[in-house]
Amino acid sequence: MIDLTDRTKVDVTQSTVLKGTLRIAASPVISQAILPDVLTRLHAKYPDMHLELMTAPSSEIKRLLKSKKADIGCSELDHLPSSKAFMQDELLLFASIHHPLAHKKSPSILDLQNTHWILPDTKDPSRPLIDQSLQQYGVQVQPTIMGSPESIKQAVLSGLGIAILSRHSCKHELAKGELTVLDYKVAPIKRTLYTGTHSNTKEVQAFLSELQAYCRLWQ
């Protein structure tokens, strides 16, 4: 387990003065679960840089870049200009530590059929991957549908049901022992996260450098 208390420590002794504006458009999972740590590191190095983070659906990020309303985009979809992969993400099966399945000694795949699920809506890029996984294991559900990963995570924490979520979106709750990964021999769903940009300013380069530093912590 990574020591989360060290994740934002940076060496500021060799910082270059950057005073420009950097506008970032990112999908909800990346915006909420990954970029706060990255921007903390970035601000520590470049306190005069003006940062703007926009949360948008992956389908909208390409438009924001094309219209030059954002300098760089981060998405689960490989459709951005100058697209480059920056991380392999995993979607895992999570439950509250108080959920009955979290303490079951002899888990069976039938348990997944007989418990309540929370799924993202069909506009979420993770939904086809989750549907494919459920179909692979023969699990049919009548879920509660929610429109944001954060809402799903909070519902899981409250005990409404179980859900497949990004490990990055749940890293703090895992570290605090509030959520657990259910061990049902269900293969994790792996997906690639991408950046894209229409410019190569020093601000963009600085952001990409800190993003890469974050990724190295999780390799």
Describe the main β-sheet briefly: 7 strands, mixed
Count of beta strands:
9
The CATH level-2 architecture of the largest domain is identified as: 3-Layer(aba) Sandwich
Q: Give the overall silhouette.
A: elongated
Helix-residue proportion: 25-40%
How far do the termini sit from each other?
Answer: 11 Å
Key phrases:
219 residues, alpha/beta, D-Maltodextrin-Binding Protein, domain 2, 7-stranded mixed beta sheet, 7 helices, disordered N terminus
Explain what the structure shows:
Strands 1, 2, 3, 4, 7, 8 and 9 form a seven-stranded mixed beta sheet that branches. A two-stranded parallel sheet has the order 5-6. The protein contains seven helices and nine strands; from the N terminus they run βαβαββαβαβαβαββα. Mean pLDDT is 90; it is low at 1-8 and 10-14. 32% of the residues are buried. The chain is an alpha/beta fold. The protein is elongated and about 55 Å long. It folds into two domains: 4-12 and 20-87 and 192-217, Periplasmic binding protein-like II (D-Maltodextrin-Binding Protein, domain 2, 3-Layer(aba) Sandwich), CATH 3.40.190.10; 90-191, D-Maltodextrin-Binding Protein, domain 2, CATH 3.40.190. The N and C termini lie close together (11 Å).
